[in-house]
Amino acid sequence: MYVANKSNKIKGYVYSKYLKPYQPGKTTVVKTPSTSGSGSSTNTPTKPTEPTVISKSDLESLIAASPDLDPTGQLLSLTSEDYQTYASVFDKNFNVGDYAHKGVFNNDQASIYVESQQLVPYVQKAIDKWNSALGTTAFTLGTRENHSMVLGFGDGQIAGWDGVFYGSGIAVDYTSFHDHTYPYGRLPVSNEPITITLTSDDDSTGVGDGVAAHAASGYHYDADVHYVTTTITGVPADLLETYWVGVITHELGHSLGLDHTPYFQDIMAAQSGTENGQSQENMKYDWTDYKDANGTQGGTMTAKLTQRDIDRAKLTKLLGYW
């Protein structure tokens, strides 16, 4: 833009980005010289550029290039307008949704009041797993007077769940938690590591069928299903503790907006996308068995988060679900 000062002694071209609004007593409008030679025109202000939303076809290309159910790369660095515009597309393609009740997460954080002191160590370890993996404090322990989510014991014997997320809290089945033969059968009293083989449809060893969560009637809960054939090794007491930490970590995942995957290694694994004839709320495709090969480690058995678990939780934050 060509400009001059009031006395016309200082003049020249200047990049308009460096100009600041000024209200003089008398304003002199200097026309911008025409570059076409056909005359001159006055300088007119331009409107701010509207945010550009990614096209649906470009978004679908990014999704197709990403690992199954794992939002990676550019999918985690789009604009807020992109996530708002295509929330339903993300929900369906990555098995996620807005499952926590309003007020559970405040400033991206949920405060959990644990009703039983017996559960506190398990909850703390589950909290630490998510907070560490996400690089932020998504969960804290609250008090009876100050909390946004409740976690305590419940009765899952009839419905068949070990843990249930119900929108504003989590319940852990009291009977199974206090049954030291669950889910692996009767274990030796020993401080030496043991190896347990988990096989599909085999209760003869006393090994329980384990858990995988599903959604029904607005709830997410853990129901008895079978495994891929695999093994797990550890000190008996540690194996039981890790299992229940895994169950709680899984349920916290639901509060973050994560539904199930067909990958046994994921903390959010489920053997089927449909339970009792009802499909989970958001599902890229249906499945009736795990996709993993035999020998796969993970899930609630090890209470370990996979990169897919973590990436999906990062996505749900960008979608505003926590």
Automatic annotation (TrEMBL):
Cleaved signal peptide residues: none
A single GO BP: proteolysis
Residue ranges with Low complexity bias: 24-49
Keywords, alphabetical: Hydrolase, Metal-binding, Protease, Zinc
Domain Peptidase M10 metallopeptidase: 212-273
An example Gene Ontology molecular-function term: metalloendopeptidase activity
InterPro entries: MetalloPept_cat_dom_sf (IPR024079), Pept_M10_metallopeptidase (IPR001818)
GO CC terms in record: extracellular matrix
Region Disordered: start-end pairs: 24-52
Pfam families named in the record: Peptidase_M10
Name this polypeptide is given: Peptidase M10A and M12B matrixin and adamalysin
Organism: Lentilactobacillus kefiri DSM 20587 = JCM 5818
